[in-house]
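User: Can you help me understand a structure? I only have the sequence.
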Amino acid sequence: MGRHVFTAVNLISDPIHGYIELTKRLSDAEARAAALLPETAAEEDLLDSAWLQRLRRISQLQSARWVFPTAEHSRFTHGLGVMHEAGLWARHLYPSLRQALQGVDAGKPVPSEGLVVETLRVAGLLHDVGHGPFAHFFDDHVLTGFPAPPDSRREGAKRLSHEDLSQLIIERELSRLIGGLRRAPGSVPERDALAEGEAIDPTWVSFLISKPPLADDSMPRWVRWLQPLLSGVFTVDNLDYVRRDAYLTGVAVGPVDVERLRRYTFVSQHGLTLFEPGLGALEMFLTARLFMYQQVYFHRTVRAIDLDLAEVFAPSIRAIFGDGSPADRLTEYADLDEYALLHQAALWARGQAVDADPQPGDGRVTPAVAEGWRGILLRRPRWRAEAEVRVQYEASPPAASLAELGAEEAGRIAIDLAVVDARPADASATDSLLAIEARDGGPPIRLSRSLARLPAYALIARRYRRQSGQSAASR
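Assistant: Let's start by predicting it. Here is the structure, written out as tokens:
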């Protein structure tokens, strides 16, 4: 491509990945000079869309940033990292993917490398585009109050989540840009460009990011085979956030050998497959992820702030967004971010827009909610941890251990249960998400047994006591 590589690709400096490539839209003349097909969109257009720029105003670590002062990174930077990680995995996996497809779908067209790489990159970039203020906290305290849009591919009903909103945004708001992409970043047109007649189907992207992962036989086999990279035992998502969050909180998690894990992973007729020598790298990574949950995400003060936030969050969102599901109001949801919430919270904390009888969408909250925000913004948690129990288990937490913490007392004693799946707990699901090939060519190895040294679940249970003189905020 000669000098045109600099016309076609931007470089973004990143503390985790070094340099992240991003495609720039070319004019017709520039595309011809670079031996590329005409294009109507590039990754920079997605990045500059209102939906992606909004993620600059959604924090990656929600309340943890009040405990780890350097953790000021956003869902925007995380999305860039996941896009890059997804591209690395797609490039590495493509030769084995191509071979496996030719083995099971003989005579059928095989997708180009550019199509596979760019589809995975777009899924990585957009996997969090539906997040609301305070990210997962918004899921737990607002979105679960609404049903998810019906989907015939899913058994039964589910509650709304940010992944559902991401799927809607991808298919309704960003589909034109996604469909206009014609290449992955790189300097080799015959490798990086989509083949003539190929285009990324936005429904592939929404399928890849679905949680719980959807089952859909109508999806191309290669899309189904690569789905575990977004929702499997390890994902391009957690491979970025474990390292990024550790670096930006200043927490040392020990070695995470992502390259070894990637080098020993390939696609077989069983789908995503790990060669046995890579198991150590996988266990190392899952251990680092568990460490981050125990040391950062479940830090005692982080959880104390979350107890305060839980009392004020839903009425605050109701005040600025009103009633109704974000799934039905995507236009208004585009303006709902942490900047909007925290700006209003600062006014409430100063006694402005406070009313004993606020109405949905009027921008007002009760005096108790305003006082709650004052404590949060000044980092004065009203809850203090006074007892803690840590347990690991396979199916259900030991009741005797939890009983040591006593009972909750509304507004006075809170029992907080923070649980993480240290490894996938469902053995059958684990084995279906990632096949293990033995180094001696013997029978397939069950991943669930290989990871048995890690617990299925790790729980930190704490008893918190509200400090005297502090009352719960009314809803």
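Now, to help you interpret it: The first helix runs from residue 4 to 8. The chain has two domains: 40-250, 313-466. Let me know which part you'd like to focus on.
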